[in-house]
Specification:
Elements: E1 3-5, E2 35-40, H1 42-45, H2 65-72, E3 77-80, H3 88-92, E4 96-98, E5 101-103, E6 116-120, H4 123-126, H5 128-132, H6 152-177, E7 182-186, H7 205-229, E8 232-234, H8 270-288
Parallel strand pairs: 2-3, 2-6, 6-7, 7-8
Antiparallel strand pairs: 1-3, 4-5
Helix pairs in contact: 2-8, 6-7
Domain SGNH hydrolase-type esterase: 38-274
EC number: 3.1.-.-
Pfam family, one: Lipase_GDSL_2
């Protein structure tokens, strides 16, 4: 299932926190505005955040950042095909198998006349959770010392080295499909900070800092790929300090291994999605201005 929306301008709602479900939008008529397509994995889909995520196999929520961006920018056309579990090839060329069936490559839904395309991808390609799990401890107060493990860093390096070309190729394919569109690659990170909190983030503080650095390196790879392909990179870690998975639940933008909200474990909360949307909108408006 994909979300397709045409929207008129709705006034009087705060842009940074606005969510437009499909039923709230109307036909634009002759109005001109942004035609927006959202692509990617669960970081865009927002699994389990609301009832919409229970429909179809992609677990795509209305509370995901693409819907908020569409409302904030008053998009006159909006297509959201982000799908939980997606890898780069599911964006460009390979159908993705979901619990309810198969969905076509996401790029098939990109309008050639799109003005804006966002992409969240790379986490499943890296298999980051498996890499990071080497830093986890079984008991509080323990230290796995993954930061000095002779195998962990080489595995991370190899995964990051393989990621860059895949993301560059994906962004290039998107640009060829919609040559006039601004393409924004939305970064990763935010779950971890320089602290552990067993059992939610079951690492020592030193290993937590090591994991945080791994995501910083991942974002540098993504930023380089965006620059190479003529896209723009959105760093969602800006302004997110103190809202990691070890923060109090009311301040948390990302869940850890034990989710205390509707969000899937190790994914953004609804507040995190609003933050990510704000970063996208700020990027669009800043560079457009």
């Amino acid at each position: 299932m994909k979300t397709i929306v045409r929207a008129g301008i709705v006034a009087g709602v705060a842009a940074a926190s606005m969510v437009w479900p499909v039923s709230a939008m109307s036909d634009p008529g002759g109005e001109q505005g942004i035609r927006y397509v959202a692509l990617g994995d669960s970081r865009a889909a927002g699994p389990y955040l609301d009832a919409a995520a229970m429909v179809g196999g992609c677990a795509r929520a209305d509370a995901g950042y693409p819907n908020i961006v569409a409302g904030s920018l008053r998009a006159v056309a909006f297509v959201n095909v982000a799908c939980t579990g997606a890898r780069a090839e599911h964006v460009t060329s390979v159908p993705q198998h979901t619990p309810t069936g198969s969905v076509p490559p996401q790029i098939d839904s990109v309008m050639p006349d799109a003005d804006l395309i966002t992409l969240s991808i790379g986490g499943n390609d890296l298999g980051w959770s498996g890499l990071v799990s080497r830093c986890y401890t079984e008991l509080p107060g323990e230290d796995a010392h993954c930061r000095t493990d002779p195998d962990t860093t080489p595995r991370m390096n190899a995964a990051l080295d393989a990621l860059g070309p895949k993301i560059t190729a994906t962004l290039t394919a998107i640009a060829q499909r919609a040559p006039r569109a601004r393409v924004l690659l939305v970064g990763h990170g935010g779950i971890y900070d320089n602290r552990g909190c067993w059992p939610n983030i079951p690492t020592s503080d030193a290993d937590a800092a090591f994991v945080t650095d791994f995501f910083s390196r991942m974002n540098r790879v993504l930023a380089d790929s965006a620059a190479t392909a003529g896209a723009e990179f959105v760093d969602v870690t800006v302004g997110a300090r103190g809202h990691d998975a070890c923060a109090p639940s009311e301040q948390r933008w990302y869940e850890g291994r034990q989710s205390l909200s509707l969000a899937k474990a190790l994914h953004p909360t609804a507040a995190g999605m609003r933050h990510m949307a704000q970063r996208v909108v700020e990027t669009v408006r800043r560079t457009a201005g």
